[in-house]
Amino acid sequence: MSFILLLGLTAATLTTIAFIPQVIKTWKTKSADDLSLGMYSIFCTGVLLWLIYGILIGDIPVIAANTVTLILALTILFFKFFYKE
Amino acid sequence: MSFILLLGLTAATLTTIAFIPQVIKTWKTKSADDLSLGMYSIFCTGVLLWLIYGILIGDIPVIAANTVTLILALTILFFKFFYKE
C-alpha cells in the first residue's frame, strides 16, 4: 500500500472515529447544552450528502466512512434533543 | 457542472461550515464543558492528515475544505482549553 493511500485512510479513520469520544461523553454526562444544534444539524445533512455522493460514484471508502460518521453524528444530534436542559 | 460534482461540493461545504455555529456558540457562552476533548483532538489530527493528503495529491477542493475545517476545529479545541471550568 502506498504512503499516500495509507495517509488518506488514516485521515478518514480519524475524522470518523473522532465522534466516538463525544458520543460516550454525552451519554455518560447526560449533558449536551454546550453542543451546537446548528453544527450537528448542518453536519448530519452534509454527511448524508457525502453518503449519497459516495453511492452515486460507487466509492466504498466514502460510503463506509460516511455511514459510520452519520450514525455517530445522528446519535449526538439525538442526545442534543434528548438531554435538553 | 454535473449533478454529482455539485452534490459533492455541497456536501464538502456543509461539513466544513457546520463548525461555524459551534465556534460562535462556544465563544458567546464561554462554556465548553460538554465538548469532548478527545473528539476535537482526534478530529484536528485527522483533518491535518487530510490537508497533508490533499497537498500531496494536489487536490484543491480537499486542501481548501480541510484548511477551513482545521482552522474552525482548532478554534473549538482552543476554546475547550481556554474556557475550562
UniProtKB/TrEMBL annotation, chains A, B:
Q: How does it sit in the membrane?
A: Multi-pass membrane protein
Q: What residues form the membrane-spanning segments? A: 37-56, 63-83
* UniProt-listed Pfam families: PQ-loop
Top-rank taxon of the source lineage equals: Bacteria
Q: Where in the cell is it found?
A: Membrane
- Which key words tag this protein in UniProt? Membrane, Transmembrane, Transmembrane helix
What is the designated name of this protein? Answer: SemiSWEET transporter
Give the species this sequence originates from.
Fodinibius salicampi
